[in-house]
């Protein structure tokens, strides 16, 4: 079971502080989530393989590196994961995008899948699953289950705020899935919301509350 990678770059930490602030309005919240996702994409793609090709600069012929032999798919968990997708695509525009719709029952806190549409060639792709919040881990675990039915090459999970409970549950259920988080928070409250957290990410992105 690999340990979660906490992306503690100062730019990410600064932006996380801004999205935690309850006075940050939806427009800024959305922009910041997208910027954080872009910075986290940099970390989550660090192990992409390279090959050398020959190119001609205005000065000379030289060998230089390009990404080789790997195709990516970004899969946001609806709704809140959508907020991370554009930031990722800004860095990897050739990636394909799948969607998994999941909502957490407000009483039982268990996830319910309501939509799943994945790229046809997903078995040839490395998947980066996106959701800003990892709370109990139930939604991420079920989303990974849905992905594994289609046998992608690999799966990574990128979130912004993770509760220790969610990290433990996801790592135990899917030890092969590397978790990236910008912050490991303190704990869940009695309603299974993350403390200190940032509230309901989907509502803050889309202004639904
Ligand atoms: O780890 P868990 O306990 O499963 O909780 C995390 C999930 O809860 C939130 O989604 P929500 O159900 O609020 O749906 P939304 O994105 O449509 O708001 C969040 O975006 C995660 O998907
Ligand atoms: O703190 C939490 C927990 C689940 N979903 C959220 O959006 N926030
Ligand atoms: Mg929500």
Automatic annotation (TrEMBL):
| Cofactor dependence | Mg(2+)
**Cofactor annotation comment:** Binds 1 Mg(2+) ion per subunit. The magnesium is bound as Mg-PRPP.
Catalytic activity from the UniProt record: UMP + diphosphate = 5-phospho-alpha-D-ribose 1-diphosphate + uracil
Q: Under which main EC class is this enzyme filed?
A: transferase
Task: Describe activation and inhibition of this protein.
Answer: Allosterically activated by GTP.
Annotated uracil binding lies at 194, 199-201
Q: Where does 5-phospho-alpha-D-ribose 1-diphosphate bind?
A: 79, 104, 131-139, 200
Record flagged with keyword Membrane: no
Tell me any Pfam family this protein matches.
UPRTase
Tell me which EC number(s) this protein carries.
Answer: 2.4.2.9
Q: Which UniProt keywords apply?
A: Allosteric enzyme, Glycosyltransferase, GTP-binding, Magnesium, Nucleotide-binding, Transferase
Pathway(s) this gene product operates in, as recorded in its UniProt entry? Pyrimidine metabolism; UMP biosynthesis via salvage pathway; UMP from uracil: step 1/1
Q: Spell out the molecular function terms from Gene Ontology.
A: uracil phosphoribosyltransferase activity
What NCBIfam families does the database record attribute to this sequence? PRK00129.1, upp
Identify its protein family. Belongs to the UPRTase family.
Looking up HAMAP family in the UniProt record yields:
Upp_B
* Designated name of the protein: Uracil phosphoribosyltransferase
Q: Which organism is it from?
A: Yanshouia hominis
